[in-house]
Amino acid sequence: MTRLRAARRPRDRRLIGRTLLAAALLTAVAAVPATAAVAPRAAPAAAPAHSERDAPGDQLVAHFYGSYLDAIAAEGGGKLATTLRSFYLTPALRSELKRWEAKNHADGVLRAQDVPAGFRVTPSDSGAGHTWSTVRLTWGTTAHRTYTYLTVRQDLGTGKISAIRG
């Protein structure tokens, strides 16, 4: 280990201070990840309509619907969609959706047989340990848009989606 001798002159003290500052800056520069130097990418054109000021429950619902729509739109995405349901939905809701799907021959999360072109999540009410969001699903082409609306409830205690009504 190198021992620094106590500097007696102000010039020596400045030199030691500059050396220590340079060493600290070099250490800090080496610790910065390479990804920090990459320029930020533009947001995808079909980004879901939610903002950082949304409640955490609304963000969770938006994350779920964005991931779920990507999974069911992908070829062979059924296993991923099932995994997403297991992660985001309560067991009781998953059972309810299975019954609804058997009866209606449609996807219970979307309340439809097809995949929508887009979605938007807006906050609604919260209270009694739950928060509600409104999910607007967008259908059709740009010239002929139609919308369906779902009410989604999230349990604040578990952080999972516990009801979907449409």
TrEMBL record:
Residues 1-36 form the signal peptide. Keywords: Signal. InterPro entries: TAT_signal (IPR006311). This is DUF3887 domain-containing protein.
